[in-house]
Records
---
Amino acid sequence: MEEIRIAELPAFHYLNFYGFGSSPELQVIGKVQEWLKQNQSKIGTSRYFGFNNPDPAPGSDNYGYEIWVEIPTEVKEVVSDVKFFAGGLYAVSHCSGLLADADKFIPEAWKTLTTWLESSPYRLGHHQWLEEQLGEGKKNFIDLLAEGRISLDLYMPITK
């Protein structure tokens, strides 16, 4: 777990993709990948944010996962169904590792952020919790997943 930093995430336009089931992240990543094959040239380099929606429930293996693909303001008119996120203040931490271990290190990273909040001068905000899927070097997050790796910045909403 790396150091926690405070960041103001600016407002942005996005498309959302959704998956539901026992492995919704893989479902939705497939949808994003398919969409990017057709539209990457329109939007250029983008940021990718995801989150559980809804969270896993006790007694069920099914839950939802949503990914937002940032759409640059100057091209939002050429892409349909664009939505708007107002941004906000966040405590941010990085985690990465093997995809096979993600069910261990991602919850541990979130736990570290929530523990940090208890002794910080901030309170929990009401805007969306986010996980930014990151690439490394010239590889995007989909390339990393294909190699069995994942790299995330975790965004916990905060307020003063």
---
Amino acid sequence: MRRIVITGVITAIMASLALSGCSHADGSLQRGKASKELDKAMSEYYQVIADCSEEIHSIMVVQHGKVLAEKFFSPDTAHVLHSVSKTFTSTAVGFAISEGLLSLDDKIVDIFPESVPENPSENLKKVTIRNLLTMNSGHATDPTRSVSNGDGDWVKGFMEWPIEYEPGTCYCYNSLGTYVLSAAVQKVSGQKIVDYLDTRLWQPLGIEKPKWLESPAGINTGGWGLYLHTESLAKMGLCLLNGGKYKGKQVIPAKWVAEMSAKQVPCVPSGTNEVKMRENPQDPSTSDWLQGYGYQMWRCRHNAFRADGAYGQYIIVIPEKDAVVAVTAHVGDMQAEINHIWDSILPAL
């Protein structure tokens, strides 16, 4: 009887490891063997980017929870993520909402009364956390560069920028809005979001607490400035792919993952706004910037979604293939970069 009990325990443990086995004991993701088709596809991909002289720094392809292909063209150091940072800020907002610290309908003038300008406009009074998450604050242009070059109150600078449209009616990519989200989480939690995420995200995913740039006010920049390794990007992608679960544990609330990765609003590329794009429409069948926007995440073609950063930083989640592709780079044509993934790698998954 004793032998049977012990055997049963061992079997249960092995089964549990098999189910949760997306990482090794040291926290790294498990490696698997790529199919001949994927090996060939990756070789074709490497040749294409070489022919195009694209400066890809790293790529990692994960399918069914295992790394099947990876290549580093530069040293494997923590890479600046630019706007991929936004997805992690959105995750912090999701935790704060789940803990009752914030709500989607909270108005920023109520969260930051000290930063509200004199005689605030009616549009400013209406801006909510939801509007910031969906890039629908009502701004016609992105105030980030102008405001963040100063040493003053960036939240006040955001509020002082003219809000030409009613919040919720016009998409305009707005990195400073993401900074305001970071500031909101810090205000209600008492922690910078890089610290707030430590026990909630970094540790469960086996990621050492990373570097994240701050404003002069000591607030993580939110919309940019986070540094992570490629494998950490893949871990985040795997967690999102599995509805917020990692190693069998619910890390990010499933409801939040569903909302942040779904199409919440129509979207247009950064540098323009929805009203201007109506005058000069583009073809959604050829653009991954016209598929819809969630909470600080873009929808893609092929029913995928992604975290997206300037110069070609990606966490691409492809649910229909149970796959994640993480990329770091320094390229000028980000659509061409993602096209190479769709053309070369996707068919082999």
---
Amino acid sequence: MQPLDVAYIVFTDLDGTLLDHHTYSWQAARPGLQIVRKKRIPLIFSTSKTLAEVRELQREMEIRHPVIFENGSGIAVPEGYFRGLPLDHQWDAFRVRLLGPDYETIVNTLNVLRRENGYRFRGFSDCSDEEVARLTGLPVEKARLARQRWSSEPILWEDDARKRLQFEKQLAGQGLRLVRGGRFWHVLGEMAGKGKAALLLKSAYQREWPHRNWRTMGIGDSPNDLDLLQVVDVPILVQRPDGQYIPVPDSLAVVRAPGIGPEGWSWAMVHFLGSEESH
């Protein structure tokens, strides 16, 4: 029997990884992006950003592949990309599948917990577009896209750590969990996550193109990326703006790419894919 052709899928975080933490620019990643394009490797954004934000970025970068949005609260697949993956919603040119409760349910739960316990936090649902722009450093028009949410809520925790632990336990009782991102905590469904979404998409690629042996690379910079890095074949961390790497479990054999954000991202693509034959 002939061995299967090896093919790669790259799952990438955006903010602080492919995009610069401060400017949100991807220009420093150009050398790595050119390799990914040349080899026709699926580049799947795996991000805390919303689908509306990701759609604009895909258009800017001329990318047409599935995306994992809102920290794995949902996946979106371009129309006609896969034949066999069950998808629940239609939005723009994407078919969407949610892996957690809808946004209204999450926000209602948060409002009840805050009212009953006196917690101090602010979510995107509490803010105007202008406030989100100030909190994130995004232009107002992009902040508006960041508030078009499907199944998660970013919050700024303004209370003490002890109360946050109590808050997390109460969320778990409601089928929700709290995930730490680069700037915010994110409330999402307990069964949602970048790792689960990545495994679903890898299975879809294997079903759609069974003559290939699909291998996965995952690259990120924040605690909310560990869920992804633990399920891919090649887990990669880039340096954060302070030059440090996040701590990881000893059991995770992660590659630490030299370079902050998109510079480290580009190094990883060149290092792992630059000498490979095109697939």
---
Amino acid sequence: MPKTPDDSYVVQPVEKALLVLAYVAECGHVVSLKSVSTVLGIPKTTAFRYLQTLTRAGFLSHDSRTDRYSGGPRLGAIARTNARIDSARELARPLMRDLTAEYDGTVNLAVKGDGSVVYLDVFEPPGGFRTKARSGDAHPLHSTALGKAILAFMPEEESLSYLSRPLTERTGRTLIDRAELIRQLRLVARRGYAMETGENEDGAMCVGVPILDERGYPLVALSVTLPLQRMSPSHAMKAGNRLVDAARSISARMAPAPATRAMAAALPGH
């Protein structure tokens, strides 16, 4: 028989509350307490508690005049973030193909996970240089150019919170000194791109940039990875500036016009 999740690990009230949230979100219109209770087979008093809890948490909104429920601000924020990430991926892919051919190296697009970067897309040249990273892999923020680019453009409180965690070494060259990492991130924020030399994978050098959303938050990051012997300091600087321009172009096409101006002003060179 196929394996099924162990019910002993399932918190049933949480599961039911999520079913209520999913039902309201999928309806696409305002719903009543009665419809939630009837469709999901939950007693009205229980459904009411779930609806009120989800409303208080911001996942739902309640109109007291009509006594109807609809999606709340936090649910909308999640949907908008997912839409932005999908938009960034779509806009980045043609550029990633061009960069792969231009540099004959590996080009990556990643999103921030919990203390890591999660690779969304990895473009590799046929017969050219390839890295170990694959779509879906997660690597530490502090050991990757992708992660450093994201950390440098996060709110300071958020990046310092990450740096307060135990920092693991991926290779013998991984930088784990917090004071030096903070100094490095400040440099990244000034010039707009991050570099790492053999910190995440031996023999490889990577240059990465953040792609900012309309709030100036590092939504995803883009990078180029080459063998160490093919990435001189001057070459790395040119690649960094090339990627900054590419990221700015993607951000501008992704964001509404008013936010685009503010975001462009936050990037180096403006």
